[in-house]
Design a protein that fits this description.
The structure is a homodimer. Chain A contains 12 helices and 12 strands. Chain A is of the alpha/beta class. Chain A binds a DNA duplex through helix 2 and helix 4.
Chain lengths: ~325, ~325
Amino acid sequence: MASVKDVARHAGVSVATVSRVLNDSVPVLPGTRDRVLAAVAELGYRPNAVARSLRTDATRTIGLVIGDILNPFFTELARAVEDQARALGYSVVIGNADERPDRQDHYVGTLLERRVDGLLLCPTAEVTPLVRDMVRDGRPLVFLDRTLPGLDVPAVRVDGGAAIAELVRHLCALGHRRVAFITGPALLSTGRERTEAFTAAMRAHGLPVRPEYLEAGDFQAASGRAGAARLLDLPEPPDAIFVGDNLMALGALDEIRARGLRIPADVALACYDDLPWFTHLDPPVTAVAQPVRELGRRAVRVLAERMEGRPVSSVVLPARLVVRRSCGERDGGVPA
Amino acid sequence: MASVKDVARHAGVSVATVSRVLNDSVPVLPGTRDRVLAAVAELGYRPNAVARSLRTDATRTIGLVIGDILNPFFTELARAVEDQARALGYSVVIGNADERPDRQDHYVGTLLERRVDGLLLCPTAEVTPLVRDMVRDGRPLVFLDRTLPGLDVPAVRVDGGAAIAELVRHLCALGHRRVAFITGPALLSTGRERTEAFTAAMRAHGLPVRPEYLEAGDFQAASGRAGAARLLDLPEPPDAIFVGDNLMALGALDEIRARGLRIPADVALACYDDLPWFTHLDPPVTAVAQPVRELGRRAVRVLAERMEGRPVSSVVLPARLVVRRSCGERDGGVPA
DNA sequence: TTGTATGCGTTATCAT
DNA sequence: ATGATAACGCATACAA
């Protein structure tokens, strides 16, 4: 590939001048400028970003480490991050950690070696030494969607507390009393928070939270199915199941269908996370919707400020309840 | 950040020796080796991939330019590509072209500047000059999912012809005669091929392909809805609608629901592309399933061979029909 | 086996 | 306004 040298020779100027017109850092005589541009066009020259990064110590790249791009929540999040990053002139490299600390560290490691300017991390349960080092070294790091305790890192996330409280009230109003919750991993801040919000809301309504109505899942479809199966096998099964994320809801739906149970007649269903397809399920699923695109946008902005050395603080966005028909609503309630 | 120099000083050796143990290119005395490794650990040294790339002229990175990561087909494709790439020691940088040639070129351009070792491209309609240049310059390029005519570039894609023929036969057997098709863009090879396969299969069964039953869509949800609307407004509406991709199917479903029509009693529905959620729709949707993960895997492998300078050829994978209940099947047919 | 020195392509400093 | 040149961090050819 052609380099600055080739362009310089072609235009009859020095490499310095080529660099100057390309970055228009310093004024250049219009005539020379044109000659350089002509040479660039003729040679199809493309600046080598690798060399530039080495020299400038900046890659205009940010890393994004998420759980799994196949999870629609993360898909949308990744897309939002990418859009905002592009708007700010950054590329983004994505890593799918699959909720495994070792794989998270694999990606954080390679991203560090690639000298990304900043990192957006949806942390897995544990605080790995690598993450701790990053914090110690003061590298631009922002937690996304989740937080890790005891670390001074800005986080951009959603607080679903109010929406969950509203959902519980909604379920009560519809006459449900035996409400179960399929939780996310207690090791994840999102898992914990949703569970706490649920139990608090239940108590606030004078409803008991029976231990057997709290099924521990792991945000994966299989655990949703298993959890639903155990709940439905109970001597006194719940009359409503609230599922902690969309993947587990898919699994719970599988199980409910497999048993020939009807929603909401036999059991009501609600989901934390909303999806376009929920409108088309039978019945349409009542869900807690997170402001995913806003989440991604804000995360990039916070990281950008952090990379520019400005002080930043965490961001918390509210979720909202989307009422449909899967909980026994009479007429579909508020249109989605 | 610590560099080789720091490690060398710390271990009391030369930078060359550090480089040697890190890449174990040349045998190094066990003692020195240990000292180097100790220094690396102590300093938390991470090799600078940027500098390495500049020196070796390789980034161990491939670019992937797709239509839109929000399309579940591309989501799964991206994930498959990423997995296979990681297995081969490559990172992948993704770009969402949104089916726009200008945005495709934006990504191809930045990926070129970042000196990716190879590029996987789901080309938009037009052959842009940039793509033509890449081919001319002999850069490792593989077309994914789609092809572009008149270019000597290996392609890894799916042939849905047989599955579409099977679907048409299936529809006929179920008594459907007025079958409509909401097509993809004629400018996309995938759009054209599906349309051709459909019309050929219809003719083979002695069924007329009325022009008004061929609705032109663009693989986006809105066009699916609009197409379905026009079809259902026809004096003699179709008794079955085959939709060219999953996003347009979502749109078509919206329209059918909005009109209060029932599937398959009022109109049968089938979709090119299969999704996990299709099982849970009412009724479950009969679909043509593409071997997406295999598609991604093979694409990376072909590209890898191409990057290693070996001769490669195109790959075509077959799709298959998944019969469910949305076409009036009696008992759900073959379980999905 | 190990060290010294060069160059990858770029930007930036210092002359001119 | 422009040119010569050093330096970024690393891998490697060559020397020892």
